[in-house]
Amino acid sequence: MATQAAHSGADLVIFPEAVLTGLINNDDPAHDLALGQQIPGPSTETLGKFCRENRIWLAFGLLERESNRLYDSAVLIDASGGMRLKYRRNQPQWHGTNADSRTYCQGTDVLKAETTFGSVSFLICGDLFDDGIVSRLRDLQPDWLLFPFSRSFPDGSSDQGRWDREELPHYLDRVGLAHVPTLMTNYIGDESLADDNSFGGAFFVSDQGELLGSLPLGQEGFLMADLEERRTIARRRRLQGRVAGA
């Protein structure tokens, strides 16, 4: 799919949370540690080679293993194949409340990296609903938030109407609170696996929390977004805010 996007003119491709490993952890270290991948490691090397060959940037999520610790992480690789940003989810709800804290770990930093299309930061899934994490993101003032996530309904359905009515407005409100234009991609689960029922979808959201474009739930494909105009608008708003505050 990254190849298709590159051939369609994309400069950046964003994949969902845990796309390389699946988000199928069950709080049993004997099972879950085997899912984790090293960063850097074979996957980042393979994808770095792809980026060099196609002159494209890739952002993606994976369960990261460091010794006997696991993190819910995201990586940005640049068009020369170098790793430009690694982020570890700060918010802990990717695992159960009783999971062994010696194995199931969180990051502590919200970071920003400069790119050819502006500065970017990651948040992952539940990070967006933590006021402290969002405040730190807002203080960084990146041009873009890359937001891989995994969202499902308890009954396992891909209910577009329910998402549009009950859930999407909360995500849009949180992006508006962050004041950062956001590129969101939701994981699509494997129907053959129990409890792996995230319903997919992709969303392009303005710094004011306005939905600019979307890909329907449950549909494999890609959403193309033109970033330049939106970045200019968001920067102008920031500048006006600073002048008004002064």
Describe this structure in words.
Helices cover 28% and strands 23% of the residues. The model has no long low-confidence stretch (mean pLDDT 93). The protein contains six helices and ten strands. It starts with a helix and ends with a helix. The chain is globular, with a radius of gyration of 17 Å. It is α/β, with parallel strands linked by helices and 246 residues long. The strands form two sheets. It has a six-stranded mixed β-sheet with strand order 5-6-7-8-9-10, with no helix packed on it. The chain has a four-stranded mixed β-sheet with strand order 1-2-3-4. Strand 7 (144-149), helix 5 and strand 8 (182-186) form a beta-alpha-beta unit. The protein has helices at 2-7, 29-32, 42-54, 131-140, 160-178, 228-245; strands at 12-14, 57-66, 69-77, 83-88, 113-115, 118-122, 144-149, 182-186, 202-205, 211-215. It has a single domain (2-245), classed as Carbon-nitrogen hydrolase (Nitrilase/N-carbamoyl-D-aminoacid amidohydrolase, 4-Layer Sandwich).
